[in-house]
Structure formats: structure tokens, C-alpha cells
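Archive maintenance. Older records in this collection stored only the sequence; we are now back-filling the structure field for every entry so that each record is complete. The fields below show one back-filled record exactly as it appears after the update. Entries are processed alphabetically, and DUF1540 domain-containing protein is next in the queue.

ARCHIVE ENTRY
Title: DUF1540 domain-containing protein
Organism field: Sporotomaculum syntrophicum
Length field: 82
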Amino acid sequence: MNQHIHCIINNCHYWANGNKCEANEILVANDSFASKQQDSIDATMAKQLTPASADSCMSTCCKTFVHKNSDQISADSIYKMS
Ligand code: SF4
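Back-filled structure field:
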């Protein structure tokens, strides 16, 4: 599958011009789950995570987000493709 992830969060380490996400993989979660988990819980662990529901798009988030100036960019084993 050839997916394209579009994102407008331009202070994320994985964001690129043209509103593209260049993370090799991302994890979308509900806000409740994401707020309780440390940065290391991310897309590389997706198969081990329990599926959960969300009431609307407003209660979901990108768990892979990391600030572009953060020293935590390697905490989740996600890498930028370009
Ligand atoms: S990791 Fe998430 S927040 Fe960051 S650019 Fe990709 S989709 Fe956007």
C-alpha cells in the first residue's frame, strides 16, 4: 500500500514542506490513551496495543508527534524517511 500522510503540524520533527508527514510510520490514538503513555509507546509497538474507540476526530491525536527541537526524537524508534 502506498500511503501518503498529510499533516499541518509544522513544529513536528517529521513534518515536511507541502504538509507531508515523513515519519516511516505513525500511531494515531485516542486522547485518553495518548495522554497516559510515555513517548516510547508508539507505532513500532502497534501490534501489541489494544484497539480503542473515539467519539470523534477531536478526541484522536498523533502519538508519533515530537517537537522538532526535542531531544526525544529517538525515544520511539520512528525515523524520518528523507
Ligand atoms: S508524526 Fe504526526 S504530527 Fe508529526 S508530521 Fe507526522 S502526522 Fe504530523
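Update note: The longest strand covers residues 28-30. The mean pLDDT is 96.
Entry marked complete.
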